[in-house]
């Protein structure tokens, strides 16, 4: 029995470390996404006159992609944490968190797909306009 208690303690410690790592990756995704988005904004501001095609949607797409990845890491951390303490309360909390994050991720993905389609349509229209100018 002492061996099992030692294993359980080790498992709890390992899960805590894994959860911490996943949550840290989530935070890193948000920070990296913010930095990359700010870089894009800075570049578009510098090149606004020569490349007027930069739009706010590109910033949203860039940051939204990173947020979606961050949500995946957060959900993974919650799942790992619940494996050690599978009480009814913990499982209900995980289910609620999973549902909320899944909906957030779903709607974020839908919005990103819509934005990408709009960007593609705009670039095609711009290309057609450029061809007409010749």
Automatic annotation (TrEMBL):
It comes from the Bacteria. This is DUF1622 domain-containing protein. Keywords: Membrane, Transmembrane, Transmembrane helix. Pfam families: DUF1622. The chain crosses the membrane at residues 12-42. It comes from Microcystis aeruginosa PCC 9807.
């Amino acid at each position: 029995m002492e061996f099992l208690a030692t294993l359980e303690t080790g498992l709890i410690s390992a899960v805590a470390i894994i959860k911490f790592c996943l949550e840290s990756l989530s935070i890193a995704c948000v920070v990296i996404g913010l930095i990359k988005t700010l870089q894009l904004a800075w570049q578009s501001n510098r090149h606004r006159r020569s490349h007027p095609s930069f739009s706010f949607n590109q910033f949203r797409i860039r940051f939204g992609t990173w947020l979606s990845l961050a949500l995946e890491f957060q959900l993974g951390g919650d799942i790992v944490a619940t494996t050690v303490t599978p009480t009814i309360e913990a499982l209900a909390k995980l289910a609620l968190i999973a549902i909320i994050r899944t909906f957030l991720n779903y709607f974020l993905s839908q919005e990103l797909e819509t934005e990408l389609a709009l960007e593609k349509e705009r670039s095609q229209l711009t290309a057609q306009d450029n061809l007409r100018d010749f």
